[in-house]
Structure formats: structure tokens, C-alpha cells
Amino acid sequence: MVELDDQSVITQLDSSGLRDRLRDLPEQCTLAWSEAKGSRFPVEWRGCTEVVIAGMGGSAIAGDLVADLAGPDCKTPIRVVRDFTIPGLSAGRCPGAGPLVIVCSYSGETEETVSMFHRAQSAQLPMAAIVGGGTLEQKAKDAGIPVMKVNAPGEPRSAVGYNMMLLAALLNQIGVISISDDDVAQAVTAAAEVVASVDVDIPGNVNHAKSLAAELFGGLTLVYGGGAFSGMALRWKSQLNENGKSWAYAEKLPELFHNSVESFPGGPEIRGRTTALMLKPAQAGPELDLRYTVLAEMLDQSGITHHTLVGAGGGLLQQSLPMIVLGDYISYYMGLLNGINPSETPIINASKARMAQ
User: Fold this and answer.
1) Residue 139 needs a FRET pair 20 to 30 A away by CA distance; which of 90, 147, 203, 277 works?
2) Entry pTM
């Protein structure tokens, strides 16, 4: 097994420098928020009845994370769509009185997202584009659609902070969510503190990300999240898949109590190789808090190893950014433990090439 404290091995496997992109996430968030403050959107968008975030993969996950930031008291529904079409699209009777569609694509070439862009355009709905370039950027500009540029290097999943903060700034400006400069500063500081504690030069015996990655290595990981960490569970799962090259699945509380828990006692050979990670917001609320407690009890009764990772104190953004950092580093170390460059995605690329044929 790869020695995670051996810097030469890390440098050899991580030839693209993904470790640097993980380290820069707090700064990425600051830059994105600062740049987004210069954007202006039609005042009519304040009357939108729904926000639809259309995207795939690493670009879409920002939508889930921002929807979590909106919280349960948000008066405007936020829906993330990963498909070729957007169900239920209908134009409002007056400008801004219908859905607002935000297409997100780091490459600007994602087939599904381009298709959703065309569907929303055909419905003559108000739209914005959050892109890194490509076909979508040009199409949006040609149509006079506001464009926010993701100016972050690397893979789409490594630009999640930038994408997330651009999206949050847009929704903040039109009154769908409320985030202040102080909120961002505190969240970035909290995220930077986590980076400092789990970065590659921090030894494994005091590095929570390294030790947890070593425990998860070679097994199945179940990521559970509820409330403000519903989208976070999906982020961790996808990072464990892409960076970690490992089997992982995500489920939401309270839904899993209506299906998944029934499987816990079965398959001793599977249970012995499974670890459950429960991502819990700091202020879960009494109903959700009870379900986290009961879930831990049921995992114990079934002999399934589990860990509860609680968000830092403070607002939702201050909890979200540090948890993103921790999950990213764990997935990175798992990729290294597998002896594979964590940034490369040859199977995803092969599947796309096959479909293009």
C-alpha cells in the first residue's frame, strides 16, 4: 500500500498537481465571490417562481450544495436537474414570473447540459449560464444571456468552490438566498483551517483525512447526509468515486429509514467491508437529530463500522466549505492508496468516447 507520508510517491502519482487545487479551494471561493459582485441581473428575476439548475457531474453538484445553503425557510424552490430535458418547463405570463434556468457546465460542451439549454431557450425562459468556456458560453453570449465565467484550472469537480460561489452570488443578488461578505470570509477562514490540518505534508498520525482514507481503503463506503448536508453526501460520494477510484454510495436522511435500513442485517461478507459516514449539520434540528442517533444505533446493531462527522459551528456556508475540503482530501488520499493518479478519469472518458461513436 502507498505510504501517504512519502512526498516523493505523492508527487509521482499526482503528476497533475491535484493537491494544489485542493489546497486552493478557500482562495478559489474568495475570488469567485469577489468577481461575482460585479455581475448584474435583471430586476425581474426577483419574481421567479422557481430556480432550475441544469448540469451534470461536478458542475451540477454546486447546485445541490447551494440548495442546501438556502435552507428550509427559502420561499423559492431550487431544483437541480441532471438530464437531457427539464420536466415541467413553462414560461411565465410576465417577465420573471416563471422559472429561472441556470445552466452550469465547466467545459461548456456537456451534451446533456447543452440539450437542457436548448429546451429552456425554446420555452423563452429567463436564463443564466455559469461556464468555463466552450459551446455553451458562445451560445449564451450570442443569445444575450448573462454569463458568469468559472476561472478555475483543472477538472470540473475541482472547480466546485468557484461554481458554487458564483451560483450563490447570483441567487443572493436576486433575493433567493441571503449571504453576506462576512459569511463568506468566515467560511473561507474555516475551510483554510481544515486545509492546514489535512494537507499532504501533515503526518498521517495527526491527519484525520489520511487516517480515515486508510480505513476506507479497499471497502464500500456509504455516505449519509440530511438537512443542510443532503447535497454534501452526494459530493463526498462522487469524489470518492472520481478521485478515490472507490465504490461509494450516498443516501439522504430521513428517506433511508423507509428502505435502506432493511438491508443492514443482510450479507455478513458485505457488512464486514462496509463503512458508513454520517455527515451531520451542526444544527440538525430535533427531528433530524433523532434520526442520526437512531441510525448510529442500527448500524451498531448490524456490526457496520460508522463515523459521524459534524459540521463546524456557525452559519450554513461556514459548515459547508470545511466539509467539502475534508471530503475532497479523503477522496484524494484514497486515490493515492489505490496507486492511481487521482485526477485522471479514464473510465469516464472511455464511456464518453463510446457514446460519441
Assistant:
1) 90
2) 0.95
Low-confidence ranges of the chain (pLDDT < 50): none
Residues 149 and 207 in one domain: no
Dist CA 240 CA 248 (whole Å):
6
Exposure b/e, 148-177, CB count within 10 A at least 16 = b: bbbebebbbbbbbbbbbbbbbbbbbbbebb
Residue 109's closest CA among 85, 129, 136, 86?
136
**pLDDT on residue 312:** 85
Supply φ then ψ for residue 130, to 5 degrees: -115, 105
Separation of alpha carbons 319 and 186, rounded Å: 10
Shared domain for 29 and 172, answered yes or no, is yes
pLDDT for the residue 73: 84
3-state secondary structure of 75: coil
Whether residue 259 sits in one domain with residue 116: no
Q: Which of 173, 166, 112, 114 is nearest to 140 (CA)?
A: 114
For the chain, the first-to-last Cα distance in angstroms comes to 38
Q: What is the pLDDT of residue 94?
A: 54
* CATH code, 327: 3.40.50.10490
189 SS3 class:
helix
